[in-house]
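Note to self: keep these together.
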Amino acid sequence: MAPSPSAGTTSNLGGMFRALRSYNYRLFFMGQGLSLIGTWMQQLAMSWLVYRLTDSVLLLGLVNFAAQMPSFLLGPFAGVLSDRFSRHRLLLITQFLSMLQASTLATLVLTDNITIPVIMALSAFLGIVNAFDISARQSFVVEMVEHREDMSNAIALNSSMFNGARLVGPSIAGVVIAAVGEGMCFLFNALSYLAVIASLLAMRLKPFERPVTQHRVLESLREGFAYAFGFAPIRSILLLIAMLSLFGMPFSVLMPVFARDVLGGSASTLGLIMGASGVGALSAALYLASRKTVLGLGKLIVGAAILFGVGLMLFSFTRSLPLAMFCIFMAGLGMMLQMASCNTVLQTIVDEDKRGRVMSFYSMAFMGMAPFGSLLAGWVAEHIGVTYTLLGCGILCALSIIPFALQLPQLRTLVRPIYQRLGILPEIATGLRAATNLTVPPRQD
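Structure:
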């Protein structure tokens, strides 16, 4: 692959932030970064509010179930829309609706009119919006990045942005809740959406061209499903993400219980624990952003899954805050290494005309399986306690990587032609040309 004409810009950005040379992505990075801080503040405030009102682990799981279940049900349809319509316009709509949800929540909490049924209804509404938002946002990355070779860096920077906010948001939320209550967290989140909406409106994009050939929705779904699950590398990654989401993601649902009942802390304790997890995840994302190639991510995915599982197992038995923060740091590091690496490989090998549908299956596996895990974890924790539930989650996460690890050599073979076509393995093409020149004698006239 020929060097990009903007190589000087890349070196100035130190390589780690090279995707920011794209104007549209730079706007998105700044706007979304601020908005995500509000999102994480709302997420922690919501968990603390529900547990404060109910003292029920099961209801914590039910609220998360209501928020995430729509991604499982609507994800594939969202993918079809992402492939048919302007992803930019879809994002503007979803961000506005998310701001409306946060504003309603803030008003009800600040006026002391909030109830659990209303919380579940608003959570379900946001879940419906997120089902379309995630698919459009994941697919929109390729439109914002001007240089194809920067796409893996953009995905890693997205993870850095997400987890940087995950570090800052809960820490701020813990202080705000302790000082003035949960309502101000919801209000800040509502205002933060203005930043990402402004960044989307300021973008300079090519006019959207609808696909010439359009199938019916069900036929498009069938085509996307056959493509995603008919190709072993994509299928394996989606199944791995589903297992991680089912067994691993519920740990965040149990954090308010662990912070208050196991460690004997407050909302500030919860913020510190979630912040430590965010530091681990941010470290992982920055490491991935510094990588120059997607080569070697298969082994990294295997090691990260083991690290995530072991981190959860150790965390389950900690009884001191510093040790708990260290263990959850390890878990956050492993979780993000695995999730972002899977996302990067998936975005690299997928065909452009099916990107929206495949990324909707990704969001379905990631967000859609989480509600089942949250509900199951809440029910199990009610019966055997938080400690053994977290231990079980860690064991299952470590075991879930075994099928992927056994298939890894075969998956590499299947992906290799795609990497060659994209120029990710240029040395192989060069080697083949050199071998041809050596074995075929020059023609003599």
